[in-house]
Amino acid sequence: MRNLKRPFGSWMGVALVVSLILFHAPVPAQTRWHTSLEEGLAVRNATHKPALVFFFNDIARDCQEMRRSTFADGDVTALLQNFVCFELDAGKHQALARRYNIFKVPTVLFLDPRGTEVDRAVSFKSPDVFQQYLDRVNRASFGGMTQAEATRRQIERLSEIQPFKTATINILEPHPGTKAVTLSHKVPNASALSVVGDFNDWRSDATPMRQAVNGDWFVTIHVPDGVHEYKYLDNRGDYHEDRRNPLRKSNPYGTMNSILVIGDPMTSPLVYGPSTTFILYRPNAREVSVAGSFNEWKPVSMFRKKDNPALWGFRCQLPPGDYEYKYVIDGEWVTDPENYYTHTDTAGNINSLFAVR
After folding, report:
1. CA-derived radius of gyration, the chain
2. Whether pLDDT at 131 is above 50
3. Rounded distance between C-alpha atoms, residue 234 and residue 232, angstroms
4. What is the pTM of this model?
5. How far is CA 174 from CA 120, 170, 182, 224, in A?
6. Could you tell me which residues are beta bridge partners of residue 248?
7. What does 212-268 look like in DSSP terms, one character per residue?
8. How far is residue 39's CA from residue 61's CA, in Å, rounded to a whole number?
9. Most CB contacts within 10 A, which of 121, 172, 238, 300?
10. Could you report the per-residue pLDDT of 59-80, keeping only the tens digit for each?
């Protein structure tokens, strides 16, 4: 048998080469997020790059998930180098959020060098889905030209994907992991109706509906598992809740969005037989209580999870029945943001609703 031992010097050479490769391996680029609008605009004006604006708030679990998974993904991070990136709290930038008609967070806007919106992504997007948005804007923006020519051409090419014309993902066609859902609605005297929601990034004419002989407007869409907010938009520019759907949630404009629940996403509270568990995501809250018809509306303290202090919980045993409740967060009474069944009491208050069977 041949001796397979390698001379010590040869092993040293191999180790040196490997160490040099590792030492000189490129360090993954980090995304620079501008939290100051003025600072970010100065950088955009100097570089003539398109902008990416991430509207968020700290109490939306999907916003944290976008940070943890999507924006931390290596492929996404590499593509983000082509943009001037903003991270703006929607509550602190309400005027800007209203200017761009932000219905919910997270919302990511893509703006050309002049500040004109050319694309948007609404609600949580996984890394592979979000890359489709980035790829589309990148293809329209860059072409290896001189800076002056590139700026002029990218504005022209970005205008081809102006918002509310064509969606990045066509929900009228089936895709892997989606389910077919038919929506229908009736609006008197409307000559056109569209459905707008998280699934088409709230684009006003991306998903037009057809009218049946009985006057109902209808459309079949293909959407993935999860919780999707939506409304109907008529030809007069008026938004309508889905009156045939009891599930709804408040939006930043003081009205309600209808809710479409596909699959079996986690909602609140969790009810298993007589056991009811309330779970609330509030990372910055100091004190959280829950009160309802099950405890004579006397607030009872909830507890932070030791392994995740952003989550508050409370569990109790209840007999069968229908119950209303609210959370008390640092003294403010609010409905459960992850429960889409509501009831309006005789005083006009909207309460969250659940049942034990």
Report:
1. 25
2. yes
3. 7
4. 0.75
5. 21, 8, 13, 10
6. 258
7. -TTS-EEEEEEEESEEEEEEEEETTS-EE--TT---EEE-TTSSEEEEEEES----S
8. 27
9. 121
10. 888 999 999 999 999 999 999 9
